[in-house]
Amino acid sequence: MAKTILIVDDSASLRQVVSITLKGAGYDVIEGCDGRDALTKLNGQKIHLIISDVNMPNMDGITFVTEAKKLPAYKFTPVIMLTTEAGEAKKQAGQAAGAKAWVVKPFQPAQMLGAVAKLILP
């Protein structure tokens, strides 16, 4: 059975690029347009990995990850932050929230798939 990955980004074009990359590697994909929208997708279904942007309207990625980690079903779900932010302070905030990896945009599909393969649980 395919593993399910939640992509959270306010850029539809970026979600599409990530989605195509992941689907091409055999993953199922769910999309959220911001942190608030993505939280509604965390409804108890099995999600194996979350890929989230940092800077988004309504609810930013770090707040979203913090909120997602409070939900028992997603407490241990690995998170990759995919962002234009490369600053140490943001990275530390992301790690504190529970992010396991930090991928800076623009990303290489192979780099993204490598990070996903390392973090996704069998």
UniProtKB/TrEMBL annotation:
Pfam family, one: Response_reg
Keyword Transferase on entry: no
Gene3D superfamilies: 3.40.50.2300
Protein name, as recorded: Two-component system chemotaxis response regulator CheY
The Response regulatory domain, residue ranges: 4-120
Entry keyword set: Phosphoprotein
Organism listed in the record: Rhodoferax saidenbachensis
Modification sites for 4-aspartylphosphate: 53
